[in-house]
Specification:
The structure is a single chain. α1 packs antiparallel against α2. By secondary structure, this protein is an all-alpha fold. It has one domain. Helices cover 51% and strands 0% of the residues.
């Protein structure tokens, strides 16, 4: 039976993961992008519940933040699918 040199070394208990260290770094970067997007979405509430605050409809909250969040999710998907270097 053939053995893979990467995963089965003689006398070694090393485990090879499907996702490499580089992929985990990219995933962490993607999570940071997501956090930035959600932080940009936050805020805009009114101090008085009877008064409407139009700031909730700002460009930052309605357009920019969702684009950054979707981009962060796409970056994470790419980071997971990226083939690790050999």
């Amino acid at each position: 039976m053939a053995t893979n040199k990467k995963t089965a070394k003689q006398g070694s208990n090393e485990v090879e993961f499907a996702i490499g260290k580089e992929n985990f770094k990219y995933i962490a970067i993607g999570v940071v992008i997501l956090v930035i997007g959600f932080l940009l979405m936050a805020g805009g509430k009114s101090d008085d519940p009877n008064v409407f605050n139009p700031e909730i409809f700002s460009f930052r909250r309605i357009t920019l933040a969702p684009i950054i969040v979707v981009g962060g999710f796409m970056f994470i998907i790419w980071a997971i699918m990226k083939k690790p270097k050999e």
